[in-house]
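Input for the complex:
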Amino acid sequence: MPEFFNVLPPDEARTLLFQHLTAVLPAETIATQAALGRVTAVPLAAPHPLPQFQRSTMDGYAVRASDTHGATESLPAFLQVIAEVPMGQAANLSLQPGQAAIVHTGGMIPDTADAVVPVEHTQVMGEQFSVNGKQYAAIDGQPPIAAFPFEIEIFKAVAAGQHVLQIGEDVAQNAEVLPAGHILKPQDLGGLLALGIWQLLVARQPQVGILATGDEVIPPEQTAGPGQIRDINSYTIAGMVQKAGGIPKLGGIIPDRLAALQTAAAHMLSACDMLVLSAGSSVSLRDMTVQVIDSLGSPGVLLHGVATRPGKPTIVGAVNGKPVLGLPGNPVSAMVQFDMFGVPAIYRLQGVQTMPRQGVVWARLSQNIASESGREDYVPARLEDGPDGLVATPVFGKSNLIYTLVHADGLIKVPLNKGGVMAGAWVEVRFF
Amino acid sequence: MPEFFNVLPPDEARTLLFQHLTAVLPAETIATQAALGRVTAVPLAAPHPLPQFQRSTMDGYAVRASDTHGATESLPAFLQVIAEVPMGQAANLSLQPGQAAIVHTGGMIPDTADAVVPVEHTQVMGEQFSVNGKQYAAIDGQPPIAAFPFEIEIFKAVAAGQHVLQIGEDVAQNAEVLPAGHILKPQDLGGLLALGIWQLLVARQPQVGILATGDEVIPPEQTAGPGQIRDINSYTIAGMVQKAGGIPKLGGIIPDRLAALQTAAAHMLSACDMLVLSAGSSVSLRDMTVQVIDSLGSPGVLLHGVATRPGKPTIVGAVNGKPVLGLPGNPVSAMVQFDMFGVPAIYRLQGVQTMPRQGVVWARLSQNIASESGREDYVPARLEDGPDGLVATPVFGKSNLIYTLVHADGLIKVPLNKGGVMAGAWVEVRFF
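Predicted:
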């Protein structure tokens, strides 16, 4: 225990924890389409530009823009349509001045064209068929057969580049498309696959060992006798681990004896990347948790207490680069504290530097909240729509009551150096 | 096609779709600890109160509060400690006036006690040991053995009920703890397990069939020739399906021929609870998608076009109670439209009535956005912290560019009847 601070503010406590962690877990190669929620292990660059060819953004005619200059409803331009560029094929044709080619949305534009005239600004001269949105000139009243060349009128001029996606307009070749440490969203998978990056290096998912203690704690499937309660924390923490991209490993309920807890903790820590002890809530069990964490290796306990409510008696430690947390026994404190240290640690072990923003919103407070300066308070709250944004209404309840959190949408953060927050103020709410 | 509206606003379009859906998929029983993100199929009630016994919230002494009245530092009350209530056991003892019992945080309080005096407000009379936070009277200087009775001084009075959780304070017996249609969060699992509800009925996860079309579209692992692009939409949509609690079933890329698409769509629809056609983006393919959806069964296409940008040419349909969507080919439109219809439909098929709030925040707009009245616009944006909340900065980009979304944190919603939004206004942003 090289550094011992009785109570630290949460930001400093987290920084202290992060200093003692292994930088990032080893990477593994997986299929991009299976990588939702995983974290990139290396920066990724575009092997080729996107798009790789000039693409039309409309159904219509590829043209030389200069051929359409001055065209209006009353004074249309006339062009000869010489061919159609089929979808998925190269536009191997050369447009001479006065010529055009049928193109479809997403189709390739000939090199010699520089713009697309949408079909709704054109009219085929003479008899015509329109089949499945393609226009054809009529030949002897027979079923539609493309008859090139045919003539069209153009009622609206286009500028060079209009209705055309340029090569590399989405991504330039060799551009970095994603940094390392990025949590992959659905669009990221699409962006990578568009570039042919169908497998990639991601950080291994952290395995998080969870041990419950407390002579009063029994498994949820058992009937509770007088003085007994069912294990809650193993399962709430496991759910939070899953949501953060980790893999929970439940080690069950360990008797309140130092040797038993030491053995179970040492075994779990060697098998996992992180260890969580959901301690019983009595002083004696907190002391035992400190002893156990210190016995596991170096540096052991980093701090014993965080300046927050709920959750002050949280034990934050690290052993051989792995985070080890001793959470308070009561379920609200345990979840709030795991959100504060465990969830960021899971992301950090995967190389995430900036914690995901998704979980945090701002809302107007509907009633005053008292707090003590020098302590960060987290107050469960419901969220509702208001006239100028979200409104947060505190759900007051003791931190022993799990249903306080069941009935809340999130936690209001009352900053460290505020002696409370007044109704009407904007507050940060973390979805929970 | 009993109802045909050319273009509907999104809310009306969604309502129309929901009217044609099967109410809720059949339920299945699963283990509560495996139910994260699943949706309750029936309301759940508490089989017993929580807590089931009076619990101490502190380490200290269970007392009759009246015995402590008037106690101060200078004029302490004196009580006889007659026993300890061990953790996890019944408090089978009767306190007479003037008596107290050692209790630990979370331990049971004797029926005859009505409050707990925290240990820090007490002092054991005479010599004492303190071991693992428990206080003992000394007996002949021997190792600590609990020696009852012993006497304590109490320096602070407690009121009846102080530091005690009452029976049913968290949840009363028979109270509804969760309604049907509730998406299960980590704390919900904990709350259910605390009540011994270790398995429960949840809606089956919707299977969502996804078919891509377009002669220009190739699988992501292939090299794209001139005019070809890799499939993006199958994978972005699959990721969104997963995030909403559905199971994506990828059917690959179907040739642009009516018969082939009809066969593949009919097969996929019969095997799944929902069907998504990621159409090619040309007019002819949109028309083909309409034909295919109408051929699948009744009612078929409900509407062909939604008053939004991006994504107007979206086809919304239903067949035999199953949603069938024809998405625009370009990737940004496809994702925005799937978020608008597909994601709510996945929740709805599981019985969710109120869509999850988690994804929506309010932010101040950093620059003007133009829009057309009568259309709902969704503008990709980055989010950053500002002085009074989040600041949204639009990422302008054509809806064909997937990296517009890769670089965005969410989508700004420009309401239907606004002709744009001015910088400084509060806007709704949907995380994406």
